[in-house]
Amino acid sequence: MNKIIPVLCLIFAIAACGDDNPADSGQPVVNETFNLPSGSSEDFSFTIDTDVQQNVILQGEFSVENGSIQMAIVTESEYQIWREGGTPTVIYSTDIVSGDTFSFSIDDSDTYYIVFLNTGPNTVTVKAEIFLLSTAEPEI
């Protein structure tokens, strides 16, 4: 899916990463369980500086109890477009799902947002473990 659909609610639950859990080697971006009422959204931001970080990978997994959600990852400028009611271009997104596992590289310096949207009628519980993996630029 290439766009975030603006909605009033977001509720989700995110499940723990499986055997490929990067917790021991990455920086946590989201590592929690939370409830989201119908008609709400929850977002988490992180910043990439490719002058310092190389081979950046965002890797994670989430699961939802009592419903389904949509999740998207956008740059800061696209996040502002969404907050103002527009339709942003996304880096990664899901359809409305009860969970997802993903891993992809990020090549540009920017602030990014992971946005969870609840379009359903019920409060959901989301459990998410999402980590940022990278190598540092060697000092010269």
Which fold name fills CATH's third level, the topology?
Answer: Jelly Rolls
Structural class: mainly beta
Order of helices and strands: EEEEHEEEE
What's the total number of strands? Answer: 8
Shape: globular
What is the total domain count? 1
If strands are numbered along the chain, what order do they take across the biggest sheet?
1-8-3-6
Distance from N terminus to C terminus (CA atoms, Å) equals: 42 Å
Strand content: over 45%
Q: Uncertain regions: pLDDT < 50 for 5+ in a row?
A: 1-24
Helix content: under 10%
Radius of gyration: 15 Å
Largest sheet: 4 strands, antiparallel
How would you sum up this structure, described in words?
The protein is 6% helix and 49% strand. With 140 residues, the chain is mainly beta. It has one domain (22-135): Jelly Rolls, CATH 2.60.120.680. The strands form 2 sheets. A 4-stranded antiparallel β-sheet has the order 1-8-3-6, with no helix packed on it. The protein is globular, with a radius of gyration of 15 Å.
Quick rundown:
By secondary structure, this protein is mainly beta.
